[in-house]
Design a protein that fits this description.
The chain folds into 2 domains: 205 residues, Rossmann fold (3-Layer(aba) Sandwich), CATH 3.40.50.720; 33 residues, no CATH class. 42% of the residues lie in helices and 14% in strands. It is built from 8 helices and 7 strands, in the order E-H-E-H-E-H-E-H-E-H-E-H-H-H-E. The radius of gyration is 18 Å and the shape is globular. The structure holds 1,4-dihydronicotinamide adenine dinucleotide. The site of 1,4-dihydronicotinamide adenine dinucleotide (NAI) has 28 residues, from helix 1, helix 4 and helix 6.
């Protein structure tokens, strides 16, 4: 991906589970030195151990992306360990479901703290370190719900739309410095976050085949996304193969939002 003697350095958030874990593993397999950030230190360590058992390496850096001091310390630690960052993947996220008029203040602020403010804090800290070197790439994992109304998901969808807009504006400002900022918008992807949404065994069928009562058409490709599907899209957008792509949202949802 980049031509220096040392491995290019990547920071991946949400790396203890699901999509972030698949991204961290994939980037490590592609020769990057990966700082894996998550607030769940125990699962982060377990994830690093699993990758090590398969012959790979990631460096756990536990931190809460919604806390400015923890973000600054984590990015400084990653830079100290692996060198200045070449890549950032914002994959940490939380989902609070509930009717738009029933969500609590806490649901709203917690969702925005991680999904929007977390993206801002991490991107600001990392891109500041990319600017003097005039290179780097950022990918923020949003959701197909950022651009498509979904019932019970208003806070989540709004927070993802905020993250998407911030990442594109950042991409505009730093483009002249050789830094690219893109988004991946997954649909239903088989991770603990998705399974937590299913209240009974009909959850998967309803995800695949749709639920017109909820105005969801299902997934035209008739399969759930895998974390690896999303990780491959992220790795593409970070790579030199995407060297002329910035401020772009790549949807990875099996057609669930009908290409809109
Ligand atoms: P997950 O729940 O399996 O993993 C999320 C990870 O983020 C967890 O390890 C969690 O500890 C970490 N995290 C949460 N808050 C954090 C914080 N404040 N600081 C640091 N780490 C924090 O979820 P999944 O499915 O892997 O989601 C990854 C990303 O993909 C999220 O941004 C999610 O919104 C997005 N996404 C997921 C979809 C799905 O169907 N699974 C669909 C669309 C988007």
């Amino acid at each position: 991906m980049q031509s220096t003697d040392s491995a290019p350095a990547a920071i991946v958030t949400g790396a203890a589970s699901g999509i972030g874990a698949a991204v961290a593993r994939t980037l490590a397999e592609r020769g990057m030195a990966v700082a894996a950030v998550d607030r769940d230190a125990r699962r982060l360590r377990e994830c690093a151990e699993k990758i090590a058992a398969d012959g790979g390496t990631i460096h756990p850096v536990p931190a809460d992306v919604s806390d400015p001091a923890e973000v600054e310390a984590a990015v400084a630690e990653a830079a100290e360990l692996l060198g200045p960052p070449d890549y950032l993947v914002n994959a940490a996220g939380i989902l609070r479901l509930g009717a738009a008029v029933e969500l609590t203040d806490q649901d709203w602020s917690a969702t925005f703290a991680v999904n929007a403010t977390g993206v801002f804090l991490m991107s600001r800290a990392v891109v500041r370190r990319m600017l003097p070197r005039r290179r780097g790439a950022v990918v923020t994992v949003v959701s197909n719900a950022a651009g498509t109304a979904r019932s019970q998901m208003s806070a989540y969808a709004a927070s993802k739309a905020a993250a998407e807009s911030y990442t594109k504006c950042l991409g505009l400002e730093v483009a002249e410095h050789g830094i690219r900022c893109n988004l991946v918008a997954p649909g239903s992807t088989d991770t603990p976050m998705l399974r937590a949404m299913w209240s009974d065994e009909s959850g998967e069928a309803s995800t695949l085949h749709g639920n017109l009562g909820a105005y969801k058409v299902g997934i035209p490709l008739r399969k759930l996304g895998r974390p690896q599907d999303v990780a491959d899209a992220v790795a593409f957008l970070l790579s030199d193969q995407a060297s002329h792509i910035t401020m772009h949202t790549l949807t990875v949802d099996g057609g669930a939002t009908l290409g809109v």
